[in-house]
Design a protein that fits this description.
By secondary structure, the protein is an alpha+beta fold. The chain has a domain of 241 residues: B-lactam Antibiotic, Isopenicillin N Synthase, Chain (Jelly Rolls), CATH 2.60.120. 31% of the residues lie in helices and 18% in strands. It is built from eleven helices and twelve strands. Strands 1-2-10-7-12-5-4-3 form an eight-stranded mixed sheet. Helix 3 packs across helix 6 and helix 5 crosses helix 6. 42% of the residues are buried. Bound molecules: 2-acetamido-2-deoxy-beta-D-glucopyranose (NAG) and 2-oxoglutaric acid. The site of 2-acetamido-2-deoxy-beta-D-glucopyranose (NAG) has 7 residues, from loops.
Length: 364
């Protein structure tokens, strides 16, 4: 029988199916890992002096920080979690009405069952587009109603508002990062205006063997900037200084991960953040992730001001978000080397002749 990630059944088993067992050197160790100390940026203030230097250092070192005083209404956040819980509590066949199909980036997915057959993540996800183009202002609501039915209209409204807020916040964060790069405030914002962003609700059920598996394997986000909110359970880890470090949950903060596309936009000045999520045996964990993207067909080219300031040659070839997205969807399983693999694929003629990328099933 085909494997199905049904949390209600799997969480109660003594042993997890072998497809979820990760190799010992990749599985999380028993016992606590050290916590990472990261800059906390107060978005209500003006960033300068030591604060600015600390942030720049973090962006260059591991690509990870947090923001507070971000202006997102706590009531909206609470409702976003409530709707997330309500959705995941439903029977699997209801969730599967929105089943994500191969090659698509939206819908419900129980683990990666169907796409991969080993090192599966212990989670279920629901992803949807949130384009910031004015004509798409009802996109999230329409999607929920079309995919799951009229009874999901309220849920759709909540995530529509949440996505609008995330878009606003992410653009504010690009202003801070512009400053960090020594560019004028607002230099990066225009690149993302009207962008094709994506939102994902992650649910990690309790796991009977939490040290044998991962909730989300080690990866860099191929996207530009990720705004992540994790619940009080904790499980997000960042790789820095040669070790995995835990990110202590902070309900008033959003975690910002720099992704591959943003790293390319900064000509490699800012680092794309390597991260993963661990699961636990006691509690279900949730996280809400918003992935800021440019418009699909906008070429990813560092701003001329930045290239002039750096005086370094271009670190990456021109590409569009559409190409990179398709690469991660159809040709490569996102991991710690996605951008390098993508760059190699471009150098080899974008799959036209020669050896393309590694086949999906073998990639890690
Ligand atoms: C979501 O966006 C992707 C590209 O970013 C597109 O291929 C897909 O068709 C969109 N899905 C929906 C439901 O709008
Ligand atoms: O749940 C988390 O904390 C991490 C989620 C994540 O990395 C992702 O959705 O890409």
């Amino acid at each position: 029988m085909a494997l199905v990630f049904d949390a209600a059944i799997l969480s109660r088993k003594a042993d997890i199916p072998e497809q979820f067992v990760w190799p010992a050197d990749e599985a999380p160790p028993v016992g606590d890992v050290e916590e990472i100390a990261v800059p906390v940026v107060d978005l209500a203030g003006i960033l300068s002096g030591d604060g600015l230097r600390d942030l720049a250092a973090a962006c260059e070192l591991h690509g990870f920080f947090q923001v507070v005083n971000h202006g997102v209404d706590p009531a909206l956040l609470a409702e976003a979690y409530r709707c997330c819980d309500a959705f995941y509590a439903r029977a699997i066949d209801e969730k599967q009405r929105a089943q994500r199909r191969p090659g698509e980036n939206h819908g419900y997915a129980g683990s990666f069952v169907g796409r991969f057959s080993s090192r599966l993540p212990w989670k279920e996800t629901m992803s949807f587009n949130c384009s910031a183009a004015p004509e798409n202002s009802r996109m999230v609501v329409d999607y929920f109603v079309a995919a799951l039915g009229e009874e999901y209209r309220h849920t759709g409204e909540v995530y529509q508002e949440y996505c609008n807020e995330m878009t606003r916040l992410a653009l504010d964060v690009t202003d801070v990062l512009s400053t960090c790069l020594g560019l004028g405030r607002g230099v990066l914002r225009g690149f993302f205006e009207g962008g094709d962003s994506v939102m994902r609700l992650n649910h990690y059920p309790p796991c009977p063997q939490p040290h044998q598996t991962l909730g989300t394997g080690p990866h860099h986000d191929p996207t530009s900037l990720t705004l992540l909110h994790q619940d009080e359970v904790g499980g997000l880890q960042v790789f820095t200084g040669g070790a995995w470090c835990a990110v202590r949950p902070r309900s008033d903060a959003f975690v910002v991960n720099i992704g591959d596309t943003f790293a390319a936009l900064t000509n490699g000045r800012h680092a794309s953040c390597l991260h993963r999520a661990v699961v636990n045996g006691r509690a279900a964990r949730r996280s809400l992730t918003f992935f800021l993207n440019p418009q699909l067909d906008r070429p990813v080219v560092p701003p001329p001001e930045l290239l002039a300031l750096d005086g370094r040659p271009r670190a990456y070839p021109d590409f569009t978000w559409r190409e990179f997205l398709e690469f991660t969807q159809k040709k490569y399983r996102s991991d710690s080397r996605t951008l390098d693999a993508f760059v190699a694929w471009i150098a080899q003629g974008r799959g036209r002749g020669g050896h393309g990328s590694r086949p999906e099933e073998e990639s890690g």
